[in-house]
Every structure is written in C-alpha cells, then in structure tokens.
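Here's what a typical entry looks like (Carbamoyl phosphate synthase small chain):
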Amino acid sequence: MDKHKATLLLEDGTVFHGTLIGKHGTNGGEICFNTGMTGYQEIYTDPSYTGQIIVTTTSHIGNYGVIDSETESDNPTIGGLVVNSFSDIYSRLDATQSLQDYLEQHGITGIADVDTRKIVRHIRSKGAMNAIISSEYDTIEELQKELEKVPSMEGLELSSQVCTKEPYFIGEETASIKVACIDYGIKKNILRNLASRGVYCKVFPAKTAVSEMEAWQPDAYFLSNGPGDPAVMDYAVDTVKEVLELNKPVFGICLGHQLLAEAVGIKTYKMHHGHRGLNHPIKNLITGMSEITSQNHGFNVVREDAENNPQVEITHVHLNDNTVAGIKLKDRPAFSVQYHPESSPGPHDSRYLFDDFVAMIKK
C-alpha cells in the first residue's frame, strides 16, 4: 500500500502527523481510546462508538484481518481511527479481507505511524475532546475550519439514527421466553447471549411506542447499549418509565443502564475521558466478588443521586474510580449495569447477568 500523509488535529490545537489508513478523506468526531489488546473488529463495529474517533492502544492493528462473524453491527460505526503500527496484510486463514480494504470500503479515514501512547496520555490529562483526521487538507487553518463543524458529544442524540428501522427477530420462535429488546444501538452479541439461553427476541426501533411492543406480549424488556448523551433522550426515558409501570422484568446495559437511572430520577453526566477497554475491574456488592469487564462509555450516573434514592440499590462499583457500575430497583424487577457482560472476545466474567435476567423472568 502506498503511504500518503495524514494529519490528526485535536480541539485544543495539538497536532500529530502520520500516514493515511482507510479511505482518503476527512473524518471528525470525539477522540477517545480503547485499551483492549484484541478484538479491534468488534470495537469498530460497536454502534456505541458512533461519532467517535478511536485510538487503539494495542501497538499492532490489522494483522488478523476481518471476518463477518466478529461484527457487532452490519457496518463499522466509528468516526475515525488512530493506530501506531498498521498492517494492510493479514495472516489469519479464515479472514475474508484486510482491515485496510474494510475501512476503505466503508468510508472510514484513519491515521497510523503516530505516538498513540502520547495521544492517550494527552486525553487522560486533558479529557475527551473533538478531533479531525484528514489526508485532504494541507494547512492547520483548513483543518480547524472543518473541525469546527463537528458536533459536541454532550447534548447529542444518536440512538434514533443508528437503531433498526424495522422490528426483527432473533432466536427460536418456539422458545418459552419472549423479550422485547429496545434498540438504542444494540450489539449482535447481546442478542446471541439471550438467544442461547432460550430467549426469543424481538428487536424494536428506539422510538417504538410501548403499546406496540406490548401487543407482542413480551415477558420482559431489554434496554440496549448505544451512543450519545442519555440526558437529552427524553423520548427514551419516557418509554422506560412506561415499561417500569408494567412491572415486568427489565435489564439494561450501558446506555440502557443510564436510561433506567434517568427514569427513576438519577441524573447522568459526561465523564472526563470515559471507560473503554477489556480490563476494567468491577466489584459486585451483592456477592463480594470482583469481575474483569469490557467497557465502552463516556457518560455515567451520578453516584450521590443513586445513594440518596430510596428506590435504588447500587449493586456494582468500578474499582478504579468508585463510579456506579450497576443498580437494581427495590420495588420492581429491574436492574442494569454500566459495562458489557456479552463482551467478545472477552472477558466473560459477567455473563452470569444474562442468567440472572432469565431466572428473574422465570420467577
């Protein structure tokens, strides 16, 4: 692959020069980093990363290509990619194409041959901020003008843009359990985990009326992960409030966790630089056990609100910063976590949560 120059410009004026990967062009978004050592394809196809430029902290990216079975959605959803060492050839026998061809095919512009360690340290110090990657513009002034067009993640509603447009089914129609899954940007592996436990899922668009979902007569509801700011998703919070009134089991993951919190009066906030990676330690306060988890979120629930809410019990905490990582309601069968128990390629410490959900439904 011929190497073309590319530039990364951060909102605070910091500039990095490297080489182009993916499609020749310009991509903008909020820059953040993921510390996972593997699973780059799952990261890039996670709808929760919509509108974000991902810095992958693993040194070598692209060496095992891409394969259809490892996608979390139909297309990569990231707004751009930053890597240290990029391989446009791959060695895995069952891979279907190179990561370079995949990124190019889906119109994603990225930059390689930059000091990703330095970039990560900068984000950790200064916080998540907007950035732009370009192989088109020659001057910083031109890049700055393009960067000013990129919307802030705070106050941005994205779920209605990335969710399914029509309902669809996953699992066996003859299954004894039916779960209505509200798609705010759902990952395929969540649905696989539910289906493998004897659940028949019907996945509904984010703005579906509760009456329409109830017409299917589900036994329970699942609130999915997704991108954007939960504080501006009034339509989703109202939906969750209606669902809670049904007194059916409810399970939320990531954005779904934040929406459950908002629905019971717990506010959310934008984090300094978020949690993203496969190595985040969580303590289950109910069992006393710890879990290593996969996480991807830039918003969280206000701990003080959760502690002062008589309706809520905090069930999980993040051991690095003591943020709330899970809650359950005391007066109805509803719980949620801020991390990804379905994580693929791993870790799988938290998959018991799907079993807990199924057991709650069977009660």
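The longest helix spans residues 234-245.

More examples are in the samples folder.
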